[in-house]
């Protein structure tokens, strides 16, 4: 059998429950699929729960396992808002150079939504832009130097040394990182039978940063004549997605716009509960649900496992286990469409007494695969 090594980061909050459900579904899909394949799992911790004992939300042994194995499935991890440690997700992306964030947004019959037949893919640059967090902090020795540089490069706008009421963020956009994310988007479109890539930016206002994004995108697009290419301003793109999402296929965006619009696209198909995601680099990839850790539901066997299971589908495709991936996605779709063995959030009424738990929904998906 063709074996694969996969790190499973169990996360915190409801993460361990979702991780267990997704792992069982993935193993069952591999067992039921006609092609050979299995996974040797390495369980690792990250997040708030391990912070108390390890002194860090991301222990070195977890990062080492992610580097060593073929791929990683990561359950949700809590990120404190406005205080505490920095996002584990951002740390992993930057440490491992996972430069492409891939978020499919697909309609499944049975999921409540105002839209039908949505099939979009958001490709987000993961390593720079405002989301990289390059910001001024009062007292930082480099602050005056950076301000001088900004003033020198700007003809009509001057800033002064920030006070404790001023925050300044730097928006780096490079030719290298922009080129590789456009190549990723076009290769993904070509390999997955998608016909159009739409570049999203705000180059009419941010002429040096988003302007560079626009110019590089146009240059790379010329190398993929078989794929239609178009461009949209980010504000107009938001309106377009609400009015006529069926016109779009693969969207490629800088980091911050990608973060925002991927949630908008998830809303088109029913919300983050059914939205999988991946962070992909040249050497490895991490697959994860796009929603949070919902700590108030910890241990209640209540939260919808669909997003992490669909992330498992993406993991299987990354490992070239396409038969197992198709089987698992089909089973998820069938269970959702039937509407019987689904969690409370997927019922017509959230207090429906027939709703099942996280583990029981996974059981139904496994049973559907035979």
Quickly describe the structure:
This protein is α/β, with parallel strands linked by helices and 370 residues long. Helices cover 40% and strands 16% of the residues. It is globular, with a radius of gyration of 21 Å.
Report on the structure:
- The chain has 370 residues and is of the alpha/beta class.
- The protein folds into three domains: 204 residues, Isopropylmalate Dehydrogenase, CATH 3.40.718; 95 residues, 3-Layer(aba) Sandwich (Rossmann fold); 34 residues, no CATH class.
- Helices cover 40% and strands 16% of the residues.
- Strands 2-1-3-10-9-4-5-8-6-7 form a ten-stranded mixed β-sheet, with helices on both faces.
- Helix 7 links the parallel strand 6 and strand 7.
- Helix 1 crosses helix 10.
Spell out the blueprint of helices and strands.
Blueprint: E1 3-9, H1 15-32, E2 38-44, H2 48-54, H3 60-68, E3 71-74, H4 88-95, E4 100-106, E5 119-125, H5 143-153, H6 175-191, E6 196-201, H7 210-221, E7 228-233, H8 234-243, E8 250-253, H9 255-268, E9 276-280, E10 285-289, H10 306-318, H11 322-338, H12 358-368
Parallel strand pairs: 1-2, 1-3, 3-10, 5-8, 6-7, 6-8
Antiparallel strand pairs: 4-5, 4-9, 9-10
Helix pairs in contact: 1-10, 1-11, 1-12, 6-7, 8-9, 10-11, 11-12
